[in-house]
Amino acid sequence: MTYASIMVAVDLTAPSRERVRLAGHLADDFGAGLIGVAAEEPAFALAPVGPTPASAYALAAASESVLTDLKAAHAAFLEAAGPRSGVEWRSNLDFPLPYLIAQAACADLVVVRRRSETGPPAFTLDPGDLVMRLGRPMLLVPPGTDHLEAKRVAIAWKNTREARRAMRDALPFLLRASHVAVITVDEGKGRDDEDGRDTVRLLQAHGIEASAVQGGSGDATTAEALLDAVGEQGADLIVAGAYGHGRLREWAFGGVTRDLLHGAPVCCLLSH
Predict the structure, then answer these.
(1) Are 103 and 7 contacting, i.e. CB atoms less than 8 angstroms apart?
(2) Mapped to the 3 state alphabet, what secondary structure does 105-142 carry?
(3) How confident is the model over 175-201, as pLDDT tens digits?
C-alpha cells in the first residue's frame, strides 16, 4: 500500500513554500505525483460607482486581482517543488474549501497548514472544516517544517471509528517507520479495549514494529498528555482520528482534535 498522488494546498506565505517542499519529499519517497492547488473567490462586495459599466469594471478588477495572486501562487509552487517530474497545478476563481475538496478526488493524501489565528490574506482554508468533508487523510504541517522523515510515528489511540480509519489511512507511513508507538491516555474509564494491545497486534501482523505506550494525564489535558508521550517517543508524526467526540462538543468544551489543529508541534495525519 502506498500513496500514488499527494496534493498540497498553496498560499502566498513563507510556510506554504515549506509545505510544498515537504510534500515534494514525500512524493519522492512514495513515488507519487505532486499536485498543487489554490483557489480564491473575488471580493465582489464593492460599492457600485455610477451606472452598470462602473460596476462591471469593479467586478473585472476584483477577478484580475485574484488571478494575479493565483499566478504568484503557481510560481511559488513551481519554485518550491523544484525540477521533479509528475508535478501538476490546479487553480480557479472559486471558494477555497469546496474547490480543494472537489480536486481531492485525484489525491491519496492532502497536505495543509496548521490552523492559524490570523491566516494568510488569500486562499484561506480551515483545516477543521476540511477534515470533516475531505474523505481523504489530511496531513497537518506546522510552520517551520519542510521535511518529514516519519521514522518514529505515534498513533493517538482510542477505540473509535475515526482512530481506526486514521490508522488505516496512515499505513503507507507506518510500513516505512522504524517504530510505531500506540499511545493511549488514561481518562479514568479503565476500558480494556482502549489500551492499544489489539492495535499493536494488528500492526505487527502487517510486519510493523509497534509497542503500546500509556500516557498519564494527571492534571494535564488529554492532548497535553498525548503530546508529552509523543515527545518522549521522539516521534515526528502523529496519527489521529479527527473529532471522535463530535465537532460541536470539541468546539464548546475543547478536545484533542482542536488542540492538535491549533498547536501540534509536529506533523499530524488526521482522518474523519
Answers:
(1) yes
(2) HHCCEEEEECCCCCCCCCCCCCHHHHHHHCCCCEEEEC
(3) 999 999 999 997 666 555 567 999 999
**Predicted TM-score of the model (pTM):** 0.89
Q: Hey, what's the cell of 199?
A: 492495535
- C-beta separation of 127 from 138 below 8 A: yes
Residue 203 φ/ψ region, left for φ over 0, alpha for ψ in the -120 to 50 degree band, beta for the rest: alpha
Specify the residue for cell string 483557489. Answer: 39
Amino acid at 216: G
CATH numbers and ranges of domains, the chain: 5-141 (3.40.50.620), 152-271 (3.40.50.620)
Torsion angle of the four alpha carbons 227, 229, 231, 235, in this order, in degrees rounded to the nearest 10: -100
Question: Do the Cβ atoms of 101 and 225 come closer than 8 Å?
Answer: no
Q: Quickly tell me which residue has 482534535 as its cell.
A: 257
**Cβ-based burial of 253 (10 A; exposed 0-12, middle 13-18, buried ≥19):** exposed
- Cα–Cα distance, 10 to 126 (Å, whole number): 13
Question: Quick check: 39 and 123 in contact, CB under 8 A?
Answer: yes
Model confidence over 52-72: pLDDT tens digits?
555 555 667 878 989 999 999
Residue 151 phi, psi dihedral angles, 5° rounding: -80, -30
* CA-based torsion, 213, 218, 223, 228: positive or negative: negative
